[in-house]
Design goal:
Chain A: InterPro entries: CysW_permease (IPR011866), MetI-like (IPR000515), MetI-like_sf (IPR035906), Sulph_transpt2 (IPR005667). The complex is a heterodimer of chains A (286) and B (350). With 286 residues, chain A is mainly alpha-helical. Chain A is built from 15 helices and no strands. The longest helix of chain A has 34 residues, at 61-94. The chains are: A mainly alpha (286), B alpha/beta (350).
């Protein structure tokens, strides 16, 4: 830059001030229009008939059941994907084997498949006329149109979040530290807990947060396998749709606002972590 | 001590107060764990879109009656959606004790999967349809486009809102009512009916997948000039949004829509809920339930209830699916199957 200025070139960033201003203004206007306004309108609509109506909508038994169900599904799906994500990225980043690319592609599959299809494959598998349906029925096991189906669909859809976050991170970090630990006599577990995990913890947390946000908000796949039984197999997003279709706008937006708040909490946790451990995070995420 | 004495002592001992109370406690405990399972019956009613409000009220009445007669609590869970989609879910294993759908064909589809006998529709009175409805027009207040009858829907510049007949039961009734009107008007000329319905659907800007979706499109998104709707759905819109916003227009001819109900045999036999499920459906025919149906804008079957609500439900010439279309299977095959009449006119229109 200095050199360029010296030889009399127009500084590349001379008009940076107003370009920068314009870009920031555009970005802000965009955010305001597409993110903040809708978010605010959710809360405005939810509180349109006062806080009493708002609370009534949230403590109504079907709404409570929907909130509980959403939390249960996320509480099962997220740890499963956490385990899977760590295992998969460990094996992909630290080992060389044939078909590694295929495995990476497979992990990405849920990103590219429409959620509706993700739901339908479970109907095809576990439906009464599906591959395993008749056998399961004879054993009295209900998979789709029940909690297990909801969990399966959610796990499938949120499958790549943790792994996708960890694979590049672990690949970049390489094997040296683990090798050193092993050479110094650490066992496999010790290596994992004391070397690998501390290295990836921020990436892991990121992945888990994203995974959780999606698990609670998933609509398409869950809608296909839910059966929409009120108070039983309706998650929060499904419950919102039902209320909306019943012209019960206040209740619909009240439940939607809870979903929005859960998302905001996720965002705040993420931001706090970044702020508190920013330097460390930057070091591991490059 | 004689043997007999010893025996009676033993007996006395066995039934001593302490043991007896322990036994009683044990029995009570067993009752506690078993009792809720026995006294509590849960039914799942898989229904179509516009019945939500009706069944909320009906389920309460049924629970009360069941409690009074059997001393048991019965909980009825509800699932609502497009009629065809709901039938699909039941076929795929949604554990419905009873289905209460928009049209017989959707239950026929469940029967074809083997879950219930194909003669299901003869099991209850009135074609197994305890309440009926018909198709009417919902227009904006004051009827600015002067829509009076089916012909007016074809006028240029009139936007008609109806769901997709491929997925929605209500939409199939809409379509067939228009078809029947044209046949009636043009001396049973099928080619003209095809032209008529084709022109009508060219005035449809958007096809929602279910009846409720279309109602939301018309009432909340303010799209279109006229909504082809279930009579009950039209009345509900007036109730929800105020009679000052919309008017109901009853055409000169419409169709008798019979939403049928049945027990799903494979499910109730497995769950052991047949008795409750059958009582549930039979109760739909009782004066009390007919009253609830009428209050929720369904046309009741019982003459004495119908008489009380006569001013609400105007007399309109109604054709029937069996009389004019040879039953649902024939109508479905001809009009709504892949490559059927609807596909032909709708694709041509695009």
């Amino acid at each position: 830059m200095l050199a360029k200025k010296a030889v009399g070139f127009t500084p590349a960033l001379a008009d940076s001030r107003w370009v920068k201003g314009l870009l920031i203004a555009t970005a802000l206007a965009f955010l305001l229009l597409f993110l903040v306004l809708p978010l605010v309108s959710v809360f405005v609509e939810a509180l349109r008939r006062g806080t009493d109506a708002y609370w009534a909508a949230l403590v109504e038994p079907d709404a409570v059941a929907a909130i509980k169900l959403t939390l249960i599904v996320a509480a099962i799906a997220v740890p499963m994907n956490l385990l899977f994500g760590v295992a998969a990225s460990w094996c992909i980043a630290k080992f060389d084997f044939r078909g590694k690319d295929v495995l990476i592609t497979l992990i990405d599959l849920p990103f590219s498949v429409s959620p509706v299809i993700s739901g339908l494959i479970y109907v095809l598998l576990f439906g009464l006329h599906g591959l395993m349906g008749p056998f399961l029925k004879s054993q009295g096991i209900q998979i789709i149109f029940a909690v297990p189906g909801l969990v399966l669909a959610t796990v499938f859809v949120t499958f790549p979040f943790v792994a996708r976050e960890l694979i590049p991170l672990m690949q970049e970090q390489g094997n040296e530290e683990e090798e050193a630990a092993l050479v110094l006599g650490a066992s496999g577990w010790q290596t994992f807990w004391r070397v690998t995990l501390p290295n990836i913890k921020w990436g892991l947390l990121y992945g888990v947060l994203l995974c959780n946000a999606r698990a609670m908000g998933e609509f398409g796949a869950v809608s296909v396998v839910s059966g929409h039984i009120r108070g039983e197999t309706n998650t929060m997003p499904l419950h919102v749709e039902i209320l909306y279709n019943e012209y019960n706008l206040v209740a619909a937006f009240a439940v939607a606002s809870v979903l929005a708040m859960l998302a905001l909490v996720t965002l705040v946790v993420k931001t706090v972590l970044e702020w508190r451990f920013g330097a460390e995070l930057a070091a591991t995420r490059h | 001590m004689s043997f007999r004495d010893r025996l009676s002592a033993l007996r006395a001992n066995r039934f001593s107060a302490g043991r007896l109370s322990a036994l009683a406690a044990g029995v009570a405990l067993a009752m506690l764990t078993i009792a809720p399972a026995k006294a509590q019956t849960t039914l799942l009613n898989v229904s179509y879109d516009p019945t939500r409000e009706f069944y909320v009220e009906f389920n309460k009445a049924f629970a009360k009656k069941w409690q009074a007669e059997n001393g048991q609590t019965v909980t009825v869970k509800q699932s609502h959606g497009g009629s065809g989609k709901q039938a699909r879910s039941v076929i795929d294993g949604l554990d419905a004790d009873v289905v209460t759908l928009a049209l017989a064909y959707d239950i026929d589809a469940i029967a074809d999967s083997g879950a219930l006998p194909k003669t299901w529709q003869t099991r209850l009175p009135n074609n197994s349809s305890p309440y009926t409805s018909t198709i009417v027009f919902l227009v904006r207040k004051g009827n600015p486009k002067q829509i009076k009858d089916w012909d007016d829907l074809l006028k240029p510049g009139v936007q008609v809102i109806t769901p997709n007949p491929k997925t929605s039961g209500g939409a199939r009734w809409n379509y067939l009512a228009a078809w029947a009107y044209s046949l009636e008007k043009n001396g049973n000329d099928e080619a003209k009916a095809k032209q008529f319905v084709g022109d009508l659907f060219r005035n449809v800007p958007v096809l929602d997948s279910g009846a409720r979706g279309s109602t939301v499109t018309f009432t909340q998104r303010q799209l279109g000039d006229v909504l082809l709707a279930w009579e009950n759905e039209a009345f509900l819109s007036l109730q929800e949004f105020g009679a000052d916003k919309f008017d109901i227009v009853v055409p000169s001819l419409s169709i008798l829509a019979e939403p049928p109900v049945t027990v799903v045999d494979s499910v109730v036999d497995r769950k052991g809920t047949r008795k409750a499920a059958e009582a549930y459906l039979n109760f739909l025919y009782s004066p009390e339930a007919q009253e609830i149906a009428a209050k929720n804008f369904y046309r009741p079957r019982l003459p004495e209830v119908a008489a009380r609500y006569a001013d609400r439900f105007p007399n309109v010439k109604l054709v029937t699916i069996d009389g004019s279309f040879g039953g649902w299977r024939t109508a479905q095959e001809k009009h709504f199957a892949d490559g059927g009449v609807f596909d032909q006119i709708y694709q041509k229109g695009r």
